[in-house]
Design brief:
Layout lengths: L3 E5 L4 H12 L6 E6 L3 H6 L5 E3 L8 H6 L1 H11 L3 E4 L6 H9 L3 E5 L10 H7 L4 E5 L10 E3 L7 E5 L7 E5 L8 H7 L8 E5 L11 E3 L4 H10 L2 E5 L2 H9 L5 E3 L12 H11 L4 E2 L7 H8 L1 E5 L40 E5 L5 E6 L4 H6 L20 H16 L31 E5 L8 H12 L5 E4 L19 E5 L3 H5 L4 H10 L6 E5 L3 H6 L5 H18 L4 E8 L3 H8 L8 E8 L5 H14 L4 E8 L4 H15 L5 E5 L18 H12 L1
Parallel strand pairs: 1-2, 1-4, 2-3, 4-5, 5-6, 6-7, 9-10, 9-12, 10-11, 12-13, 13-14, 18-19, 18-25, 19-20, 20-21, 21-22, 22-23, 23-24, 24-25
Antiparallel strand pairs: 8-15, 16-17
Length: 690
């Protein structure tokens, strides 16, 4: 029997990932049919391939997913694939499920951006019987459908190149619906004047004042521009990054962040951390970008590896082609016209803005002849699909409908033992600790103000703190601090030192002396490199480096024998579960999990804090809120918010500190201070005292 594989992916990075996997999969059938939406990118990438063009589906467009079900059933019935392979996203769900219902073996390869948790499409595939899950980052769990595939980025290796003047720059900001004006504002002052600058702006609203801008280029044109450039700058989209690496570039990558409404979550920050870990890109947050970063990226190159490991789908992941009897895939490019059913999809106008196929139209013999080498044509025609769904089909899509309709963030598989949470994951609102919550604030002096003066000012407005947040930064580690101490008040203390220096033992003497002087009459929560996830995503270091340095500091703390020190791991609040898996140093090295959470838009208290509470419960650790703040709204609105936070978290977290600082002078930051707001300050005093 001639085996046939159905390959389906959403246009953009998902499709480029699947194309890369076609090169890497050792046992892919030669007879392959692609299912995707027609765009300039897909038309360019799939020239010469057998393609079924289907209506586009964007992120979480439930109506269009449901409208695609009849077409998916018709395609599966006529193509009859023995295997279906997908890299996501929403567009692919009905086509994968329809193929499986007709006997195909399903394989879903999770995106390279998902290093800690599954995507929404991945979670839908979990609910679909018959799908084998392949993930590019190591994961734990007992589900046999999960298996490591290795990373797509194993196909590339870093190379050094001689520094060259930057004469041509290509910038691509992504083509999804999210604006990335922050990158434009950061780049314009730094790009060399007189250089040839090409922008692919996509949906970004801010028009670049220098260079020439286009909305979207065909993939072949963009790849050619990348190959000719001295510097490539891109958002952290996997498709753009793969195109840059394939062109031999070491791109300057600017990840989008969800707190600025630049994406639905922070998977681009995680992709940035992966690229830094492999030395394949220079990754920076736009607000921390400098001219040196542009020069560094221009002075580096990458190359495709000839020895990249192969993936075997039939016999399990992690095997090489030599360990199996592979069915070699045909090379990408023109395919001969052969017998078989004709498949061409036509779009129709559907009332109320919904899109669905009206019919499948067979071309004439002359059209079929003209299409040879571009789109393989087949006959006879497929009849119009039925609008009625069978019971089995309805059950298969039920999980997809639920997830897409709710946009839920179901938890990823727990990592057992000392590498993550246990098997029982407490639902949102659960807690791993019940007791007294120490409530206080960060002391942040105004310009020219001393620490004691700032503490006196804040105490007058917000009352006596139950805990004080203290930042060391690069300053010498001394106890008590030179600028004044807080009496007998417990402290949450953080300090930063470069992970490579810590691992080399450069600061051991200073850290030992500091830890040895910490008080033994009250608790001190000590955090090394707070918000390490944000710094790693910005390219300061890799997750591997800072995780190892945290373990080193934890051992120095253990050596003090001080029972009042609590080893505290503090990360940012967005996408907390995903980040924690990357930086988790093991349960033996952490006493308390900490999180910094800010209300950047209009999120409610539950949406901000329930996720970290559930994660802490899953990891069987108490949670502390090291920083939180609100900058929007009137005095009355901010008063209501801080009161709600304290009432919601009292007794559920070990400490709760407000970041009482005016940071309007920092690009992208805001005035979080409430000590100068009468209603908000009074609300804080009442809630914290109660």
């Amino acid at each position: 029997m001639n085996e046939r594989v159905l390959l389906t992916a959403t246009p953009g990075g998902h499709l480029q990932e699947l194309l890369e996997w076609v090169r890497r999969i050792a046992d892919l059938p030669c007879d392959r049919v692609w299912v995707t939406a027609r765009t300039p990118q897909t038309t360019s990438l799939l020239a010469g391939e057998d393609v079924i063009w289907v209506p586009p589906v964007q992120t979480r467009q439930l109506g269009r997913v449901l409208a695609s079900v009849p077409l998916a059933n018709a395609i599966a019935r006529r193509v009859r694939p023995s295997m279906v392979v997908s890299t996501g996203a929403a567009l692919t769900v009905p086509y994968v499920q329809a193929a499986i219902l007709r006997g195909a073996v399903g394989h879903f390869i999770e995106s390279a951006t998902r290093t800690g948790t599954l995507s929404l499409t991945g979670r839908i595939m979990e609910l679909t019987p018959g799908v084998r899950m392949h993930v590019q980052a190591p994961r734990g769990g007992s589900d046999p459908r999960w298996s490591p595939s290795g990373s797509l980025f194993e196909s590339f290796a870093p190379e050094l190149a001689a520094p060259t003047p930057i004469r041509k720059v290509v910038v691509t900001l992504g083509t999804e619906r999210f604006d990335f004006s922050r990158a434009v504002r950061a780049l314009v002052p730094l790009l060399p004047r007189g250089a040839d600058i090409l922008w692919q702006v996509g949906s970004t609203a801010t028009a670049p004042p220098i260079g020439r801008a286009v909305t979207l280029l065909p993939h072949a044109d963009l790849a050619a521009q990348f190959a000719e450039a001295d510097l490539v700058v891109t958002h952290a989209g996997v498709g753009s990054v793969l195109t840059a690496l394939d062109a031999g570039q070491c791109p300057l990558v600017l990840p989008r962040a969800s707190r600025y409404a630049e994406h639905v979550d922070d998977h681009q920050l995680d992709l940035g951390a992966t690229l830094v870990d492999r030395s394949l890109a220079v990754v920076r947050d736009p607000y921390r970008l400098s001219g040196d970063d542009l020069a560094e990226a221009a002075a580096r190159r990458t190359a495709r590896r000839a020895d990249a490991p192969r993936l075997c789908l039939r016999q399990g992941s992690g095997e090489t082609a030599s360990q199996a009897t592979p069915i070699r895939p045909a090379p990408l490019g023109p395919a001969p016209v052969g017998p078989g059913p004709l498949v061409l999809a036509a779009r129709a106008s559907i009332p109320r803005g919904r899109m669905a196929p009206r019919q499948l139209i067979p071309p004439s013999p002359s059209v079929a002849t003209a299409a040879a080498g571009q789109i393989r044509t087949r006959s006879p025609a497929i009849p119009p699909p039925s609008r009625r769904l069978g019971r089995t089909t309805r059950r298969a899509v039920a999980g997809a409908v639920l997830l897409l309709a709710t946009g839920c963030s179901a938890s990823a598989a727990p990592v057992p033992g000392d590498t993550g949470p246990g098997d029982a994951v407490t639902p949102p609102g659960g807690q791993a600790w019940v007791g007294r919550t120490q409530i206080g604030y960060a002391v942040w002096p105004h310009p020219g103000e001393t620490f004691p003066d700032a503490l006196t000012r804040q105490r007058a407005a917000l009352g006596q703190p139950g805990v004080v947040r203290y930042f060391y930064g690069p300053r010498p580690l001394e106890w008590p601090p030179k600028e004044g101490f807080t009496g007998s008040t417990p402290l949450v203390v953080s300090f930063n030192r470069p992970p490579k220096d810590v691992l080399a033992g450069t600061h051991d003497g200073e850290i030992r002396d500091f830890l040895g002087r910490l008080p033994r009459d009250r608790v001190t929560w000590v955090a090394y490199e707070h918000e390490m996830d944000a710094k790693a995503a910005s390219g300061d270091y890799t997750p591997t480096e800072v995780r190892a340095a945290f373990i080193h500091v934890a051992r120095l703390i253990n050596a003090t024998g001080n029972p009042m020190i609590r080893r505290t791991l503090i990360l940012t609040g967005w996408d907390y579960r995903n980040r924690l898996r990357l930086y988790w140093p093991g349960a033996a090295n952490v006493d308390v999990l900490g999180v910094d959470i800010y209300q950047w838009t209009d999120e409610g208290v539950g949406r901000l804090f329930d996720g970290p509470l559930a994660v802490a419960a899953a990891y069987h650790k108490p949670l502390g809120i090291a920083e939180f703040g609100v900058w929007q709204g009137s005095d009355e609105q901010r008063a209501a918010f801080v009161g709600q936070v304290i009432r919601r978290l009292r007794g559920k977290v070990v400490f709760l500190t407000y970041f009482n600082a005016d940071r309007d002078d920092v690009p992208g930051d805001h005035d979080w201070e409430i000590s100068d707001l009468p209603l908000a300050a009074a609300a804080w005093r009442r809630a914290s005292a109660g």
